[in-house]
Amino acid sequence: MPKIYIDKEVCKGCGLCLYFCPKGIFEISRQRNKKGYNFIEAKYPEKCILCKNCEINCPDLAIYVEGD
């Protein structure tokens, strides 16, 4: 199963990963990071197809995906 790593302290919750993910894996958390942003969470990581659209399009490099 793919591993999706999100640096919650770097994420500013811009939502680009939500837009670019073809499988709808992400959602915006109700929690906030130290900077006051609602960060992104991988709600359905098991649906990941390793396209890495989220990683490629994250302007803050807050997402890293690994797997086979």
Number of helices: 2
What's the oligomerization state?
A: single chain
Query: Kindly, what is the distance between the CA atoms of the first and last residues, rounded to a whole number of angstroms?
Result: 8 Å
Number of strands: 4
What's the pLDDT, averaged over the residues? Answer: 96
Strand order of the largest sheet: 1-4
Q: What characterizes the major β-sheet?
A: 2 strands, antiparallel
Compute the gyration radius: what is it? 11 Å
At CATH's second level, what is the architecture?
2-Layer Sandwich
SSE order in H/E notation?
Answer: EHEEHE
The gross shape turns out to be globular
What helical percentage do the residues reach? 10-25%
Q: How many domains, as an integer?
A: 1
Stretches with pLDDT under 50, minimum 5 residues: none
Features:
Alpha-Beta Plaits, two-stranded antiparallel ribbon
Structure description:
The chain has 68 residues and is of the alpha+beta class. It has one domain: 2-Layer Sandwich (Alpha-Beta Plaits). Helix content is 15%, strand content 29%. It has helices spanning 16-20, 53-57; strands at residues 3-6, 26-32, 38-42, 63-66. The strands form two sheets. The protein has a two-stranded antiparallel ribbon with strand order 1-4. A two-stranded antiparallel sheet has the order 2-3. Strand 2 and strand 3 (38-42) form a beta hairpin. It is globular, with a radius of gyration of 11 Å. The N and C termini lie close together (8 Å).
